[in-house]
Amino acid sequence: MELIKLLYIAVSLVSLTLVSLPPITPQSYACDQRNPETTNFLFCDTSLSYEDRVNDLVSRLTLKEKVQQLGSGSTGVSRLGIPAYEWWSEANHGIFSSRYAAKFNGSMPRATTFPAVILTGASFNEKLWLKMGKVVSDEGRAMYNVGQAGLTYWAPTVNVFRDPRWGRGQESPGEDPLMVSRYGVKYVNGLQDVGDERVSGSNSRLKVSACCKHYSAYDLEYWGGVDRYHFDAMVTKQDMEDTYQPPFRSCVKEGHASCVMCSYNRVNGVPSCFDSQLLQGVVRNQWNLNGYIVTDCQALQTYLKCNYTPTPEDAVALALKAGVTMECSIVMQNYTENAIHLNKTDESIVNQALTYNYIVLMRLGFFDGNPKSLQFGSLGPSDVCADDHQQLAIDAARQGIVLLENKGALPLSNDKTSNLAVIGPNGNATFTLLSVYAGMPCNITTPLQGLQKYVSAVTYEAGCDSASCPNQTRIAAAVEVAAAADVVVLIMGLDETMEGEWIDRDNLTFPGYQEQLINSVVAATNGVVVLVIMSGGPIDIAFAKNDNRIGAILWVGYPGQGGGDAIAQVLFGDYNPAGRSPFTWYPKEYTEQVPMSNMNMRANTFPNFPGRTYRFYTGNPVYDFGHGLSYSTFTKSIISAPSGFLVQLNSPTSRNHSGEAIDVSAVRNCNELNMKLVVEVSNTGSMTGDHVVLIFWRPPSSTEVNGEPNKELVGFKRVKVKQGEKRNVSFGIKLCKRMSVADRAGTRKLVTGKHVITVGSSSEQQIKHTTDLRVSANAMQ
Ligand SMILES: *[C@@H]1O[C@H](CO)[C@@H](O)[C@H](O)[C@H]1NC(C)=O
Ligand SMILES: *[C@@H]1O[C@H](CO)[C@@H](O)[C@H](O)[C@H]1NC(C)=O
Ligand SMILES: *[C@@H]1O[C@H](CO)[C@@H](O)[C@H](O)[C@H]1NC(C)=O
Ligand SMILES: *[C@@H]1O[C@H](CO)[C@@H](O)[C@H](O)[C@H]1NC(C)=O
Ligand SMILES: *[C@@H]1O[C@H](CO)[C@@H](O)[C@H](O)[C@H]1NC(C)=O
Ligand SMILES: *[C@@H]1O[C@H](CO)[C@@H](O)[C@H](O)[C@H]1NC(C)=O
Ligand SMILES: *[C@@H]1O[C@H](CO)[C@@H](O)[C@H](O)[C@H]1NC(C)=O
Ligand SMILES: *[C@@H]1O[C@H](CO)[C@@H](O)[C@H](O)[C@H]1NC(C)=O
Ligand SMILES: *[C@@H]1O[C@H](CO)[C@@H](O)[C@H](O)[C@H]1NC(C)=O
């Protein structure tokens, strides 16, 4: 099984690299003022509107020239002074290097590498997400200015982390649709916004362009013999409305992202990039995307291999018709002209696609001449890997780290630690810290190096050859070191060979002999034992949770270039942890109960199906979504919250009982109804720290709506509270958007009756408040 899987991965990687793409030319710019001809081109005239400029540009192109611009490796039009432009760049958590993206050489050989998004997600800190986006776009612009990077980045990933086995869960901020939505909006703002002012319209200038991916219902790599290219995600209207769509809807409507990427998989039988209802219907027409729609790379080739269409010309025509405006790869460039000759598509559709694409480049300033004379033109080598950027990489990791368990072992004290043993295959991890889609980091601090800054006598034994820990040969040496130590830090977990692009997990246990290594070390030492888990997804660690000899457990995601410093600062109490788990920690049996390919969120949609994520899971998790401890103690109280809402309808209703489900479109001024909530947070412990206030909601049950969530996150804020002090934290929760439920037809309904608001996750002090929602007798006419 494993071998077949590896073989499969190897073969697919080979087939990917065999695809020939045009040679890469340095990123450059159009409308170079040194060329006098450009003064004759209206498309170079910055006093005109983007639309007028693009119309002028497209009208000058021959059909042959046009089709060459439909691929990510666009050829440019040299007779008009438009250079080739590579659209494919990546920036999931820092500028990524690859053949098609940024080049790490010359004056900028490195860039700041932030933690895997799943860890930054765990910070529940919108300000951090925005700041990170700004740093990444500063570095991207700096690299663009010298021709080492593009302006169009295919990030963020806003697919919810639906199944704990998903190898790319680490690229997503978490399993909750609201949290993923907020991450997407903030990261997109950080990448795209040109100033500190809020984005006014969606047609504003862009710093760099962001792309929400992968649309839609994409979150399976290779599981149970099905790969992402052949996977048909069967999604109910209800799950679509309240789980799969929200992050993309926010990314486009609130984040004003200038791109959406369609995914490899099918959704209810239709390949995503051929789905005109989703792309043209929803993204373009309902959400009003002002930007381009790009296919995932080689999606059209894979559709052809799957025989979804008979010919490449059909594939091109279907994609264009569905709303795709650009392809990552070369099928469109090769076959669009012939598709037009065969009357499978029309030149006007091509013109429309090019218009969308070029407007994005115009907004980026690509047609405004030398970028060094534009805004951001002064960004250069000193802005990449700048000290404050590297500090932010450490801070992002610290803010995300989740203290899962603390039986008094933490924080460690360096005075009292004379002999520290670091044990585990990830104890001196370098590239594993960086996670997937990472560039060349400015510098890496490994966990061992981070801890060496606190204690001089540190011994290190990996205990396994690698994270897969295939045999027990090195356990004895680890046991020996542990026996002599007064503090043992076990740094265990996964790596990119077990979770990543193309690689889903089969189980939720520690790989190989890791569990045995942990147990052997714990049995051998009288010292304090701390378990640190490095992974993108959850592991069933119930055995460690229940072992009182393990004094504390931390989850550190893949913490990025500053991960070693972040881990050490948290362990020694220089940073008070406040991260919250962005996913549910399921017991290992979960993988037997739930086929990964089953997209249902709700429990009992088929016999014995326990449901997915904290919103619908009916089993007992090892740790719940939102769980996370601190070295301090916080108490909360509700200062103010409405006791009820009396909503008015647009027309009278004959029924009026608790549990009535009212279509949100029938509620008067629905979008303006806001639930204001003030929570007082008080730090009653002995250490200053951050606290994440989580607001959950549970709707009244209604026979008219089936499948209400157990509970659902409707608001969150991370605040700093000094030791002994208090702070008020305010929330404005949109009633119709957040406190409505999707019915089976995917329609949003407000349910009358008692809505329960709970402040706090299931493992902390919880305060409940009930708000009664009723319908006013005074219906509007
Ligand atoms: C950087 O790499 C690119 C692509 O490999 C190459 O074309 C370019 O000349 C290199 N630049 C420097 C300064 O080495
Ligand atoms: C596209 O055309 C080029 C040049 O003719 C060819 O080498 C390449 O194989 C074609 N690729 C595809 C996917 O059609
Ligand atoms: C081309 O297709 C269009 C729309 O499908 C059709 O109306 C038209 O008659 C076709 N033209 C030719 C020449 O086949
Ligand atoms: C830890 O990793 C660093 C960076 O790769 C390396 O220089 C160092 O020798 C390693 N230390 C041990 C004890 O393996
Ligand atoms: C890189 O990180 C190591 C380990 O933390 C540190 O000793 C070194 O000073 C750093 N180098 C730079 C240039 O920041
Ligand atoms: C243990 O695994 C390593 C590879 O990780 C291998 O080199 C070594 O030979 C194995 N030892 C035994 C005793 O199987
Ligand atoms: C669980 O999966 C990991 C890879 O993710 C593998 O190394 C390990 O052998 C598997 N364990 C079992 C018991 O199948
Ligand atoms: C929170 O608000 C309440 C009501 O306005 C006020 O009494 C209290 O002092 C505030 N607490 C803080 C810490 O500002
Ligand atoms: C619904 O019932 C509430 C009391 O339960 C009442 O105040 C309200 O007027 C009724 N609304 C309608 C439209 O009958």
Automatic annotation (TrEMBL):
<dbReference type="Pfam" id="PF00933">
    <property type="entry name" value="Glyco_hydro_3"/>
</dbReference>
<dbReference type="GO" id="GO:0009044">
    <property type="term" value="F:xylan 1,4-beta-xylosidase activity"/>
</dbReference>
<dbReference type="Pfam" id="PF01915">
    <property type="entry name" value="Glyco_hydro_3_C"/>
</dbReference>
<dbReference type="InterPro" id="IPR036962">
    <property type="entry name" value="Glyco_hydro_3_N_sf"/>
</dbReference>
<protein>
    <recommendedName>
        <fullName>Fibronectin type III-like domain-containing protein</fullName>
    </recommendedName>
</protein>
<feature type="signal peptide">
    <location>
        <begin position="1"/>
        <end position="21"/>
    </location>
</feature>
<comment type="similarity">
    <text>Belongs to the glycosyl hydrolase 3 family.</text>
</comment>
<feature type="domain" description="Fibronectin type III-like">
    <location>
        <begin position="691"/>
        <end position="763"/>
    </location>
</feature>
<dbReference type="InterPro" id="IPR026891">
    <property type="entry name" value="Fn3-like"/>
</dbReference>
<dbReference type="GO" id="GO:0031222">
    <property type="term" value="P:arabinan catabolic process"/>
</dbReference>
<keyword id="KW-0964">Secreted</keyword>
<keyword id="KW-0378">Hydrolase</keyword>
<dbReference type="InterPro" id="IPR013783">
    <property type="entry name" value="Ig-like_fold"/>
</dbReference>
<dbReference type="GO" id="GO:0005576">
    <property type="term" value="C:extracellular region"/>
</dbReference>
<keyword id="KW-0325">Glycoprotein</keyword>
<dbReference type="InterPro" id="IPR036881">
    <property type="entry name" value="Glyco_hydro_3_C_sf"/>
</dbReference>
<dbReference type="GO" id="GO:0045493">
    <property type="term" value="P:xylan catabolic process"/>
</dbReference>
<dbReference type="InterPro" id="IPR002772">
    <property type="entry name" value="Glyco_hydro_3_C"/>
</dbReference>
<keyword id="KW-0732">Signal</keyword>
<dbReference type="GO" id="GO:0046556">
    <property type="term" value="F:alpha-L-arabinofuranosidase activity"/>
</dbReference>
<dbReference type="InterPro" id="IPR001764">
    <property type="entry name" value="Glyco_hydro_3_N"/>
</dbReference>
<dbReference type="Pfam" id="PF14310">
    <property type="entry name" value="Fn3-like"/>
</dbReference>
<dbReference type="InterPro" id="IPR017853">
    <property type="entry name" value="GH"/>
</dbReference>
<keyword id="KW-0326">Glycosidase</keyword>
<dbReference type="InterPro" id="IPR044993">
    <property type="entry name" value="BXL"/>
</dbReference>
